[in-house]
Design brief:
Layout: H1 4-22, H2 42-45, E1 51-54, E2 59-62, E3 80-81, H3 89-158
Antiparallel strand pairs: 1-2, 1-3
Helix pairs in contact: 1-3
């Protein structure tokens, strides 16, 4: 399971991507303090990056920069908005956790596939080496067999047991 700080870091990265891609952030020359925008709308409050909008209390608060996520004493995660009004912290954390889990599982599966592929290639090399060794043993065995056969034929010839026709029966002499 993905740890809570890792999910928070992912959430922060997504927020940065949302702001840069969507262009929801418009720089203001001199941002007003967040508490002065409490009686306004979510969109007006979130024009300043340092502000956090709480839907339940309809307050514009300073974002608690000491914490990655605002504590529930400031505003519940389900009701806290930062950057854009449609981003819900709680749903974002769940989504980021699921996506991080999918990425981790994908990396593990890819690593396992690579390891299996390398292992199969290693087995192929070992099989080829074993086959070469087996061919070498067979050729040496065949050479020994023919050498023994020649020696036996010499002995048979020496004692007059040699046959012209190897398929003929031996006669009692």
């Amino acid at each position: 399971m993905v740890s809570f700080p890792a999910a928070c870091v992912c959430a922060a990265a997504v927020f940065c991507a949302v702001f840069s891609a969507a262009g929801a952030q418009t720089p203001t020359p001199s941002p007003a303090p967040c508490h002065l925008k409490s009686n306004s709308t979510c969109a007006e409050c979130l024009q300043t990056v340092a502000c956090l909008w709480c839907i339940t209390t309809k307050q514009c608060l300073d974002y608690p920069v000491k914490n990655i996520l605002p504590p529930s004493s400031v505003c519940p995660l389900n009701d806290a908005r930062w950057g854009v009004c449609w981003v819900n912290f709680q749903i974002l954390i769940i989504t980021m956790s699921v996506l991080a889990g999918i990425v981790v599982v994908s990396v593990v599966v890819c690593c396992l596939c690579c390891c299996c592929k390398c292992e199969r290639a290693g087995n192929k090399r070992e099989d080829e080496q074993a086959e070469r060794q087996q061919r070498g043993r067979k050729s040496r065995q065949k050479a020994r067999r023919t050498e023994i056969q020649l020696r036996h034929d010499e002995i048979r010839q020496k004692y007059g047991l040699a046959k012209d026709n190897p398929y003929a029966r031996m006669d009692d002499r």
